[in-house]
Write a structure and sequence with these properties.
Elements (H helix, E strand, L loop, with lengths): L7 E4 L9 H15 L4 E6 L9 H14 L8 E2 L4 H14 L2 E4 L3 H14 L23 E4 L6 E6 L3 E6 L7 E3 L7 H11 L4 E5 L3 H14 L5 E5 L2 E2 L15 H7 L3 H9 L13 H7 L10 E2 L2 H14 L2 H14 L7 H10 L10 H7 L1 H4 L8 H4 L4 H13 L7 H14 L4 H13 L7 H21 L4
Parallel strand pairs: 1-2, 2-3, 9-10, 11-12
Antiparallel strand pairs: 4-5, 5-8, 6-7
Length: about 475
């Protein structure tokens, strides 16, 4: 029985200083497709532009991949380091008659195009060297061009876009090797994908035209083409191509916002791909469900409100220790002071009452400040205003009443309610001063949750501090 070929996908970003959210989404699709089929997911850095391809720019891509949790198989491949192999293939195509040496200068090419424009002809350059035998070649610099078919069509069977047809008379004999011996991007991509065993080229549909040219190289070399799958780009909420004016375009900007990586994976998966009506799902479900047939042909639109909702859903379902670790990562990414072990422990204990309606990691940290604060608490002005002479008197009485009661929710609720009623108040009137005393804030988790998290000793100390405040 024939063995099924192993699926191999790849992401091949250019290091430009950030990892774009579109690149992140493409990486995710490739990762999901490979992981769901026991295949390999490879990473290649297309670093042939030496001016932009700095170690820092490459590290930015690796940071983005690591934060997203998209693990790749083997080492990251440098396209630049493979230049000798690319040149070798160009020379092999030359020897086979599928490429030729072109001695046309830039001035000659421009003169050709100017004449074509003046005559109303296509400006597609037709090299006069295409069929000149070796004996007629000068001793001069040359490029190696693909000898592309001049008639007929190049057809791409695309798993997302369907059958896409290109007229060959609209495709030029592209340069594969420059006169200085360096390969062009078009050649390098094909050689790398072939040598790395890539079976599925899942990438943005801005590469669809490239597929026609790259397919001609595959066919000239007699190599099996990958399955082509060109996915629509991401647009802003206004339907225009995503740009800085729409907000964050780099994936690490979302890390800095405090979006959990799991939520980002869920959200990106739904940008252009769907599985029935499912909007919210786990990694395991995404890996199980993801298929190229679920990718639409229309551009996806970035929706920050939806991202926040997805983040809230994931935060509500994550484990307490996991969320504390995520907060630690967020603090590190943003250069903020890290939490001590004691702070981590108390934050984990508080997490059950922080998750509700939190949309980001900073939300959680903000809601959990009561647990991390040290005495004496800093008072926000609206909270300080709650501590008038009457409320301070009630807090003094409460401090005595809470000395020996059982420290559980029912007992605390009953004790605080009785204290309010003794002064002819509903408990809601006492909640404001209690929030101020326990957190120094007017917006907090419930006072009972705060008391349970910080414990009897700290609660009594904070109540005592608040009751003895001046003013």
């Amino acid at each position: 029985m024939a063995q099924t070929q192993q699926i191999v996908t790849r992401i091949a970003p250019s290091p430009t200083g950030i990892m774009h959210i579109g690149t992140a989404r493409t990486a995710l699709f490739n990762w999901l497709y490979a992981r769901g089929r026991g295949g390999k997911f490879l990473l290649r850095i297309e670093d042939t532009d030496r001016a932009r391809s700095t170690p820092e720019a490459t590290e930015a891509i690796l940071d983005g991949m690591r934060w997203l949790g998209l693990d790749w198989d083997g080492d990251a491949v440098s396209q630049f380091e493979r230049a000798p192999r690319h040149a070798e293939v160009a020379r092999e195509m030359l020897a086979r008659g599928h490429a030729y040496k072109c001695y046309s200068t830039q001035d000659e090419i421009e003169a050709f195009r100017e004449a074509a424009r003046a005559e109303g002809r296509s400006t597609l350059f037709l090299s006069p060297w295409r069929d000149v035998p070796e004996a007629g070649h000068p001793d001069a610099p040359f490029v190696i061009r693909l000898k592309a078919p001049r008639t007929g069509e190049t057809v791409i069977e695309d798993a997302v876009q369907g059958t896409v047809t290109f007229r060959n008379d609209q495709l030029d004999d592209m340069v594969m090797l420059r006169s200085d011996g360096t390969p062009t991007y078009m050649l390098a991509v094909v050689v790398d994908d072939h040598d790395m065993g890539v079976t599925h080229a899942i990438r943005g549909d801005d590469h669809l035209n490239n597929a026609a040219r790259q397919a001609q190289i595959y066919r000239a070399m007699g190599w099996a083409e990958p399955v082509w799958a060109h996915i629509p780009l991401i647009h802003g909420p206004d339907g225009k191509k995503l740009s800085k004016r729409h907000g964050a375009t780099g994936v690490m900007e979302y890390a800095e916002m405090g979006i959990p990586a799991a939520a980002m994976r869920n959200y990106l998966a739904r940008l252009g791909w769907s599985h029935g009506d499912d909007e919210l799902f786990t990694d395991a479900q995404a890996i199980d469900w993801f298929d190229l047939s679920g990718i639409g042909r229309s551009p996806a639109r970035l929706d920050m409100k939806k991202l926040e909702n997805v983040a809230g859903w994931h935060i509500a379902r994550m484990g307490d220790a996991e969320l504390v670790a995520e907060i630690g990562s967020w603090l590190a990414v943003t250069g903020r002071p890290l939490l001590s072990q004691a702070q981590q422990d108390v934050l984990a204990a508080a997490m059950y009452c922080l998750k509700d309606r939190a949309k980001s990691l900073p939300d959680l940290l903000e809601k959990g400040q009561f647990a991390l604060a040290s005495r004496p608490l800093e008072m926000e002005p609206p909270a300080a205003a709650q501590l008038d002479p009457v409320s301070r008197g009630i807090l003094r009485e409460l401090t005595a009443q809470l000395q020996n009661v059982s420290w559980d929710r029912d007992t605390l609720e009953a004790t605080l309610t009785r204290a309010a009623e003794a002064h002819g108040l509903k408990f809601g009137k006492l909640a404001g001063p209690l929030r101020a005393a326990l957190a120094g804030r007017s917006v907090t988790p419930s006072v009972f949750d705060m008391m349970l998290v910080i414990g009897r000793e700290e609660t009594l100390a904070r109540l005592t501090d608040a009751a003895s405040r001046d003013g």
